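seq:
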Amino acid sequence: MGLSCLFGHKYVGCKCERCGKTRDEGHDWDGNRCRICGKTRIGATTEYYESDNVGTRQETVSQANTYWYVERMKMAQKPPFTLFLMPSAAAAEEALLEMPFMHRAKDSGKIICDRIMTYGVYQTEENDAVSQGKYEALITGFDFSLDEYQKAEQAFTSRGGKCLQHEAPDASVRVDNTVGDPAKVQYKETTTTQNGRNTYQVYIALNKADAIAFLKTKPVNQNFHYIIVEIPGGQVGRDINGFFEDRDTDGDDGFNVQVNFINFT
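struct:
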């Protein structure tokens, strides 16, 4: 609770407009989901589809290497993560599905993520050949809270996993379940690299929730095309592989003067 709410919150519906704290009353229900805080009604069954995926799924060693040696290297800040060696793909998927943000898509049968996370399960390689019975499982993202991180490590370990590397999130990380408004995102510019290969459509939003809601309406079906939304403290975006996020190193709450383009190719 911030100092602004020391003597009481100022709730608008179920959420305090000053500090963001939520309460279990005053919800604005859209079916079984609250438009304000994202809460799902108790006992409600929610079906998820591949189109609901806001994460970037890893299914091969090649995709994993691209993340570690290209994408992550370009990030101004590095998000927390946990990486485990698992005895089977089934064990890894069972552990992933214990996370509140992971779900099994009804149409594709694959695991999807309702937050901007890089995640997945893939068979490892040895001497440039697929290994036998060895799988790596990864979860990483800026909204990966400490409680969730600890739960993930416990879920992987309880299924025979061995931690390869990890970096715990700060205890201050909080998950924002606000439902955004795509109409509040404004167009800024479209730029192309000198060689004409990469095209970037750039927009501006006042918060991450609005940016994500907007990006959900903008599927990308071609390589080297990127939709970027600048937000206070960083940017979120989407390309043919999925959603991604980058944050400023200085924690500045102002918009980026120049977009720090991430080339996810």
